[in-house]
């Protein structure tokens, strides 16, 4: 199997990762974003454990939306310094 950018693959040793999309390929490794939301780097010596997958089966994790955290209790106030009269 030829590994190139945009290829959709399964990792035969870790199906729990889901389907992955190849994001970058160098001489030594491929960077793959898997459906579980983790980007992993696979060494070129391990390309044999990757198998082609249906491109329609890759569903990227949506970008997380920043949510403002609400404190259960308000922050304690600092005591104001008093000047000595």
Descriptive notes:
The structure is a single chain. This protein has 85 residues and is mainly β. It has no helices and five strands. The chain has strands at residues 8-11, 20-25, 29-34, 39-43, 50-52. The chain has a five-stranded antiparallel β-sheet, with no helix packed on it. It starts with 7 loop residues before the first strand and ends in a 33-residue tail after the last strand. The model has no long low-confidence stretch (mean pLDDT 85).
Second rung of CATH, namely the architecture of the domain at 8-56: Roll
Per the CATH scheme, the topology name of the domain at 8-56 is: SH3 type barrels
Categorize the overall geometry. elongated
Chain-averaged pLDDT: 85
Largest sheet: 5 strands, antiparallel
DSSP strand content: 25-35%
Uncertain residue segments: none
Q: Give me the secondary-structure category.
A: mainly beta
Multimeric state of these chains? single chain
Q: Would you report the number of β strands?
A: 5
Report the span from N to C terminus: 83 Å
Q: Provide the succession of SSEs.
A: EEEEE
Helical content (DSSP H or I, runs of 4+) = under 10%
In which order are the strands of the major sheet placed?
4-3-2-1-5
Number of helices: 0
CATH class of the domain at 8-56: Mainly Beta
Radius of gyration, whole Å: 23 Å
